[in-house]
UniProtKB/TrEMBL annotation:
Transmembrane segments: none annotated. This is diguanylate cyclase. InterPro entries: Diguanylate_Cyclase, GGDEF_dom, Nucleotide_cyclase, Rev_trsase/Diguanyl_cyclase. GO terms for molecular function: diguanylate cyclase activity. It comes from Methylobacter tundripaludum. Pfam families: GGDEF. Its cofactor is Mg(2+). It catalyses: 2 GTP = 3',3'-c-di-GMP + 2 diphosphate.
């Protein structure tokens, strides 16, 4: 069994101020950490800056709030773990690994240095919380239209650069206006939220779902060819059809129409999206509750 030390780093304002004067004279950690708001860059900078004082072979940073697990280096038998927290705000957990057991002196120096990491991590957390709110649809807890506009451009560039497939699914709830008119907008909101939940349950970790507008969702599928996208769309369609919404004393059945498009050479964002949108409307015209792939 490897040696593991479980520690809790709780840093208050007083602790930070008391250690700052000692640490910043000896290490330029703090100034380096002010250069970014990205978690992976912060942890990499911190690791490199403490390497001379606290030799380590690898690090792992976990932040459940943002579904992050950042790791680098060679995993070895000895480790120390710190749950990072400041002013009641959880900032994730940092693990350092080493070929040799960390001494008490190592841990004391490391805990002092962690004071320089805490506030940059807090700033990164606040930044990404704001970004998450700006890019999240509050009703369905999916990504929103603004997020899609950013993501589609990035994913298309990556697919072209790496010669990878990229597919998109347009999803529209059938007869959504009738649901609103018959049962009310609260039922409509419930339908949207549950539809988003059921879509997510059918997806892989690499897939991203967006609320595109109204009752329409878009699913972006990286490294997925036309056949794979069509199979996934059919899985989503079947999942929606097999669920029933219990609203008050009513059982509300819903279905959805889906259109699939796969990135082609010389596609623009507009042409790529339009094929999926057109395919979805073709599914509507053909009777709804079906998947149509663009040709």
């Amino acid at each position: 069994m490897g040696n593991k030390s479980a520690n809790l780093a709780i840093i208050s304002n007083n602790t930070f101020e008391a250690t700052k004067a000692i640490n910043l004279d000896n290490y330029d950690i703090s100034s380096a950490l002010q250069t970014t708001l990205e978690f992976n860059e912060l942890i990499a900078i911190f690791s490199s800056k403490i390497a001379n004082k606290i030799p380590h072979s690898a690090y792992v940073y976990i932040n459940p709030e943002f579904d992050l697990e950042i790791k680098s280096g060679v995993f070895t038998r000895h480790s120390c773990n710190y749950a990072l927290k400041v002013e009641q705000q959880q900032l994730g957990e940092l693990k350092l690994m080493s070929n040799h057991r960390f001494s008490d002196t190592d841990l004391q120096v490391l805990e002092t240095m962690l004071c320089c990491l805490i506030y940059p991590l807090k700033n990164a957390t606040l930044f990404h919380q704001a970004l998450k709110m700006a890019y999240t649809d509050p009703l369905t807890q999916t990504h929103n239209r603004a997020s899609f506009n950013d993501s589609i451009s990035r994913e298309m560039s990556l697919a072209v650069r790496n010669a990878k497939n990229l597919s998109v699914i347009f999803f529209d709830i059938d007869h959504f206006k009738t649901i609103n008119d018959t049962y009310g907008h609260d039922c409509g909101d419930t339908t949207l939220a549950l539809s988003a939940k059921w879509i997510k349950e059918s997806l892989r970790d690499s897939d991203i779902v967006f609320r595109y507008g109204g009752e329409e969702f878009v699913i972006l599928l990286s490294d997925t060819d036309a056949h794979g996208a069509e199979l996934l769309a059919e899985r989503i369609r079947a999942s929606i059809e097999h669920h029933t919404i219990a609203y008050g004393m009513e059982a509300v059945k819903i279905t959805a129409s889906l259109g699939v498009s796969t990135l082609r050479e010389n596609d623009t964002i507009e042409s790529f999206i339009k094929r999926a949108d057109d395919a979805m409307y073709t599914a509507k015209k053909r009777g709804r509750n079906q998947v149509v792939s663009s040709k």
